[in-house]
Write a structure and sequence with these properties.
There is one protein chain. By secondary structure, this protein is an alpha+beta fold. The protein has a single domain, classed as Electron Transport Ethylamine Dehydrogenase, CATH 2.60.30. Helices cover 25% and strands 21% of the residues. The protein has three helices and six strands; from the N terminus they run αααββββββ. A hairpin with a 4-residue loop joins β3 and β4. The termini are far apart. It binds benzylamine. Benzylamine (ABN) binds next to β1 and β6. Benzylamine binds next to β1 and β6.
């Protein structure tokens, strides 16, 4: 910890030499008030919603029981170095996807969930989740989820699946 003490001491001395106490306090106050206001910005709220675990997006994205996983058949990217919406490093997201409709327990509404496969590495092997709601036999491809959607990607090797919330489902399901 000695180096940390020296670093903090040097920084403190440099600040003391180059600023007056009043201007230092003004800057510190601005930083504190500004920092406290950051979560009020729309961007911060959106990020919180994506991360899961909030009222709007409850549950653990690494659990098969997580609400967005209702129609999935694959490995959860949130367990494989990615998140619910981003592929793990070194993999590429498929543009062609399986679509499901899942009910969000936070508001009781149905949302359209896009199950994009992440491609380019061998199977993640962790958090296999097969909830398969509304899945139909593979001889009806447009209603079946048991497919490798790594099509049109550089590699056809399947790694894991993300669960992107596309938006509110409207009309009859
Ligand atoms: N869409 C996930 C997946 C990949 C390979 C085989 C079956 C299902």
């Amino acid at each position: 910890m000695n180096w940390l003490d020296h670093l903090v001491e040097r920084c403190t001395r440099r600040i003391a030499q180059s600023t007056s106490r009043r201007s230092f306090l003004t800057r510190l106050g601005t930083a504190l008030v500004g920092g406290a206001a950051l979560p009020l910005l729309p961007v911060a709220r959106a990020a919180a919603g994506q991360a899961g675990g909030t009222d709007a997006d409850p549950g653990d994205p690494t659990s098969c029981d997580y609400w967005r996983n209702c129609a999935i058949d694959g490995y959860l990217c949130a367990c494989c170095g990615g998140t619910t919406t981003t592929c793990p490093p070194g993999t590429e997201m498929s543009a062609i996807t399986w679509i499901g409709t899942c009910r969000n327990p936070a508001d009781g509404k149905d949302y359209i969930i896009s199950y994009n496969d992440c491609c380019g590495k061998t199977s993640c092997g962790t958090c296999l989740c097969q909830r398969n709601e509304s899945d139909r036999p593979v001889y009806r491809p447009h209603t079946a989820n048991d497919y490798n959607w790594c099509i049109g990607t550089k590699s056809a090797v399947y790694h894991c699946t993300v669960t992107v919330n596309i938006g509110l489902a409207t009309g009859a399901s």
